[in-house]
Structure formats: C-alpha cells, structure tokens
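Researcher: Go.
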Amino acid sequence: MKKMISYKKLKFTYIKYTIAALFGCLLCVRGFVPFEKTGDNLFHVSVNGTEVGSVGTKERAEELLLEARKNIALESEDITFIEMDMTMEGEEVLWGRVDEEEAVLEQMESVLRGSIRESMQRSYTVKINEYMVNLLGIDEVRGLLQAAIDKYDSEGDFTVELIQDGARELNVLKAAVVEVAEEESEQTELAVNCSAGIQTFFSDLGQQEPDADEMEFDDYKLGLMRMDFAEKVEIVESYLPESQLIPLQAAIDQVIKEQETPSEYAVVSGDTLSEISLKVNIPMDRIIEMNDALDNENTPIRVGQKLIVTVPEPELSVTREEQIYVEEIYDAEVIYKDNDSWYTYETQVLQQPSAGFRKIIADVSYLNDKEVGREILKEEVVMEAVPMIVERGTKIPPTYIKPISGGRLSSGFGRRKAPKRGASSYHKGVDWATPTGTAVYASCGGVVEKAGWGSGYGYVIYINHEDGRQTRYGHLSKVLVKAGQSVKQGDKIALSGSTGVSTGPHLHFEILIGGKQVNPLNYLE
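Model: Structure:
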C-alpha cells in the first residue's frame, strides 16, 4: 500500500515538472507573446487597407513601414510619391503568435508598390530665353544641343560642352560650342616640341605671321571657323513626373525646326510703311530688311502689294562664321550726288552701272541660314565694276493731311459707275460724305490759284504747293479764300456743300502731280 502511494506521488511530480518544462519551452519559442497585464500586446497591422501581418509592438510596426519605404526608394533615383496609411488593431492575449518580420516587411513593400501615386524622375530642364523643354537625361540634353549645331556642321568639327555656372547657387549648367580637340595630333605635336627643345623655341622666335597683303589664296584656311548659340542656354537639374518629359526627337522638332509660317500683310488704301509698322508691331527697318522690294522708308508701296512681316525662326538659333573662296560677278557701290534744291523723292541717274568680276576670300557671318555680315579678307579684281552715279534731292518734301475732320469715304479714286447724269465714270479724286457747312482745311501749305465757281465742281478751290503739286477742293457751299492768297497747312479755306454736279453733301478732293490726278489716299499722312 505504501509503495502504491509513493508511485502516485512520483507520477504527479513527473507530470508537474513536465508541464513546467513545456511552459518554459513555450516561453522561449520565437513568435509567442507572454501574457502580461500591460494592455495590448499583439497588433494586427494593415497598410492602405490590406493586412500585412502581426507584430508585438506599435513601434516595431512603424520601423518596418519606414524600412519598406526606404527599400522602394533605393530601387530608383527617382522621387516617388506613395499613398501610405497604416492602421493597427491591438489586443491583449495570453498566447499569441506574431509573424516573421521579413514576411511583414515583404508584404508592406508589395502593398506600397501597388500604391505608388507618382514617380518624379531625375531630369533636366533646358531653358532658351523664356522657352523651356524638359528631357530625361543629360545625354538627351547634349543630343538636343548637338543637333542644333550639326545642322550647319556637316564635318563634325564642333561639339557642345556643358559647363558649371559658378555664379549660380543652384546646379545650373551653361552650354558652349567648342571646336573638337584632335587629341592625337596635339600629343604628337607636344612630343615633337619636347624633342626639339630650345632649338625649336628660338627657331619659332624668328618666324612671323605673314601679312594679310602677302598671303596667297592658298594660304587661307577655308571652311567653318566659329560657332555659337545665338540665345542664352541654361540647363537646370530637376525632378519631374514622366508626363512632363518630352522625347528627344520631339524636342528637336520643337526647338530646332522653324515652326512659324511666314506672315504677309496686304497693303490697303492709305497705308504707309510707318502705319504698317504700327499695325503689325514690327519696327519699320525690320520690315524693310525682310522685303527685297523695299530699299528704304521712302520706297513707294501700292494697294494690294504683299509685304513679309514675319520670318520663321527656330527657338534655338545658331551663329557661325565661315571662310569662303568665291569667284563672282559684283556691282560697285552706288555713288550719290546730293542736290539741295531737289526734294528727297527726286532722283536722276547720271551714269549707268556695269558689273565687274573678282576673286575673293571672305569671312561670312550667318544667323541660321541667313547671311548677316561679310568681311573681305583678300580680293583680286579681274574686271573693274563701273558704279551707278545718282543725283538725289535732300529737301524734305511737304506733307499732306486729310482736308476735313471725320466724314465717310463715299467714293474712291478710279473707275466707277457714274452716280448721276453728267458725272464722270472715272473718278479723279476721293469723296467724303459730310453735312453741308463742315469746315474744309488746306491739306498742304501753298498759294491759292483759283477760288470760285468751276464747271462740274461747283464752288472750287485750287492750291499750288512748293513741291509742284496741286490740290483741289470741290462742291463747296462757301469759299473763304481768294486767288493769290498764301495759306498754311490746316488753315480753314471753305465750307463743304453740294454745289455743281453732286448727288448730296460731300467734299471732293484731288491731288495732281505734273498736272495729272493721282490717288490722294496714297499721299495723305
């Protein structure tokens, strides 16, 4: 009986220690959280609404999320924007299993990759004056700028160099065009110079550059001499979304190709070059430069004539200088002889020109495809050109103004349907419809030749001007001057009316040159 009790006691002790051992093992097993009366000790973590696993503390969950974000960022040099919202549901447990941290981290990374909102890529912004274009890499920047100069450098003698702008706080590069260095030739030349030593140095001292007058045609280095960009080019490193980047070829098309279509302006009645300049907002000298038919601001223009007012230009222009050899027919410069008694529009050719023939070496400057300057370095005249000699006036001619204020242009100059019996079908002036009694002013200063009744004109005034022209004012209701009277431009000379052959109250106005009527609208300021 005593042995039986001892056996039971031994069995109980064994069971008790076994349970204690198992309990101790459980406490040591990774992934199990011991029960402590400290509140929540197991946290179920979700990222952007997706459960990624369970951890033992909030702090560890936050550390794992930051590590996942960092790992994704290291996968690319781009700046990545990710939706990142982590929630944790905690509970207090006696026994609880947490997930392996590597698995939780992997799940977090997977969810974050699927939540990438936008990736800001490392890129470069090329700024040309106020124009900007965004490219993915620095090689594309070089490709764009190189394409601009390659358009005019078929031999590949020049290349683009990007230089750090030390005067700027930001990381800004400047673009420069430099001649391609022939490294092998330079190294060979250096070796020769070193071996020659002092002897070469003193030998060079005895040599001088040949004078330009002594150089022969074969002594000149022909071809492309210099290149540069006409506009200021800056390159700034930036981070941009892919949607704002442009492929290289599209950038070349936008920046280098001439985008603008040439624009024309059709001359209308009453236009002058100065008025056209104001209308199209382009300087008059620029309009003259763009149109071969215009020699200067005094060149006559006609109604319907089309003038070029814009020339297509690329966003990025290239300047270059080429040295050329040319055999050409040339014209001598015109020789002018001034006549102070003539007006500026009066000219007379005293000697007709004759073209010559010459050989030249010249430095020619270009802006894109347009020649903008030429310097002749050497010239050999085979046959001398004979210049044109022109006598020209220097006196400023008088001006002409509209003889009434307001009024509606009711009949222009030239052929028309006769408005009534007795009226001419070829109108020799212009008419402005205006109420009877409207003040009429002298269009230009001069001397009154006639003031009174004239057949067809009704009451009319003729005024002779110092430039030999004459103005006429017809269908007046009242004449306020008399023959032989001197008047100044803008003096009140009459009142409008409807006398003579007239269909209603208006002013008829003519300008005569050499006794022949011309269109007055072409001469009024």
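Model: The mean pLDDT is 83.
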